[in-house]
Amino acid sequence: MRTPMPISGSRNGWAEGRGVRLYLAAAICCSVPVRAPVPPAPVSLAVPASPVPVRAAGRLTLVYELHVADRGVRPLRLERLEVRDADHPNAGPVATYGRSELERNIKLIAPRGAPPPRALTSGVRAVIYIWIPFDSAAPMPRALTHRVTFADGSTAEGASVTVGMPTDLVLGSPVGAGDWWIGLGPSNTSEHRRAVIRVGDDTVPHLAQRFAIDWVKMDPRGEYARDHRGRRNTDWYGYGEPVFAVTDARVAAINDGIPENTPGENSRAVPMRVATVLGNYVVLDLGAPAAGGPHHFALYGHLQPGSLEVHAGDSVHQGQVLGTIGNSGNSDGPHLHFHVTEAADSAAAPLRGEGVPFVLDSFTVVTHDPERVAQHARLTGLGVHRAALPVEGDVIRGVR
What we know:
- 8% of the residues lie in helices and 34% in strands.
- The protein is mostly beta strands.
- The strands form four sheets. Strands 11, 12, 13, 15, 16, 17, 18, 20, 21, 22, 23 and 24 form a twelve-stranded mixed beta sheet that branches. Strands 1, 2, 3, 6 and 7 form a five-stranded antiparallel beta sheet that branches. Strands 4, 5, 8, 9 and 10 form a five-stranded antiparallel beta sheet that branches.
């Protein structure tokens, strides 16, 4: 056997030196503690309402929520969320949320009867609000997976979630001519987007207002009231304006007789309960989607008492007047609250359904809310748009 030549010194010196080096390497190796693998996080992940692509602010967008339910005994802190294309798991994430972004886009839900939670602890559910816009050249995934990492290094992965086909629910405008501010409209931060509702014995909260819009009429200067303050309902430009059926439909339910509020944040004519929060309203049954499933329902809220021109069971045609804009229910001033839900029946449709995306057949953006512009929010471009959903901060011009 060939003997290796020493680098320097005698053969024995080289061998001794080599032995020393091997010993030191072994000692260093053995001195490094072996970290025990971090067990999977004791949580469950779920997406109660599968995402359906909708064109908003110029991009095809996915809007949905990931629920993280803690089943362990110690508090957890979310550190990172990765959303991946289930068909291409080794590709880069479709979207990534770091700690700071998660903190801005999360709501903690406690069990019924428990005080508001301050951390993700046993029995608490974290609702993560997800809004993913896709470039026109980017393919839309057919399914998504989610991986959550916590501050202690533990992780959790959820099952694959199917992405629906882009919405084919094309509607006409629910309001008439003039300029209309899309107040609290679709965005990932609007009050409607974050409104989590549990009714009766519900254990999983609903987001009926996921794509809701408050339609507020404005003058060409951007004022919503003739006296610049709107101290009376009649001072508001939208007060008494008619609202219209967005498509041929059947009247599924109505609610009337709730008195109107005096404009103001803390002014309510009646106590706010499930039966009064939407004020006087009309619910239209739009029928089941082409692919089947539960019916879609359109809700018109906060209408004037006594102004409803339809009854439950009536058939209506697109453009037919349903009632007039008022200030009833949980409303600070005259406007139309409009949203579309998917629900088992008309009784569940107003608040216990899941908000589904829709698009307007056509609208023209004439300007934007300066506050949303200052926030660098993504808004719809000026001009005419077809088969798209206006977003929070757009001001669109209605023509009828």
